[in-house]
Amino acid sequence: MLKQYLDSAAATEAMGAWLAKSLPSGCVIYLCGELGAGKTTLVRGLLHTRGHCGSVKSPTYTLVEPYQVADQRLFHWDLYRLADPEELEFLGLREQIDGEAILLIEWPERGSGELPAADLTITLDYADDGRNCALEAHSAVGQAVIQQWP
Asked: Which of 43, 54, 88, 112 is deepest in the core (most CB within 10 A)?
């Protein structure tokens, strides 16, 4: 497990930028933390580092935002408003689990039983004026990501 204190939104985006350089295709990341803890901020840093030039908003109402960056497909899920995990089937999750797309999933506990296993769980918790960030590997892929930390 890797733990890091992030003292600002810029530091949270920088953590996302580091992840962008470390994630292989097909990686599944669960993003955990309270509302406003910085999950989307981290995703913003990741996507911008990968080459996305537009805005990055939380997919709270759409549930999923697809991104195509160069030859890489990324999907940012926010399951906060998901009524039933079985809805994921109708939203196209199965087609995204192809070993190539990167899945970034906020509120994964709401999709329990329907989501693919995570390679990495990132938990952001409030701490003073910043956030504590913990990365926990659940696979060899996740462990390889964590081992790249400087």
From this structure: 43
Tell me the two tokens of residue 26: 């097909």
* CATH code, domain with 23: 3.40.50.300
Q: Which helix (H) or strand (E) holds 21?
A: helix 9-22
**pLDDT one-digit tens code per residue, 121-146:** 999 999 988 999 999 999 999 999 99
pTM of the model: 0.92
* 3-state secondary structure labels for all residues of 87-141: HHHHCCHHHHCCCCCEEEEECHHHHCCCCCCCCEEEEEEEECCEEEEEEEECCHH
Rg of the chain over Cα atoms, rounded to whole angstroms, equals: 14
How many angstroms separate the CA atoms of 126 and 35, rounded?
Answer: 10
* Number of domains within the chain: 1
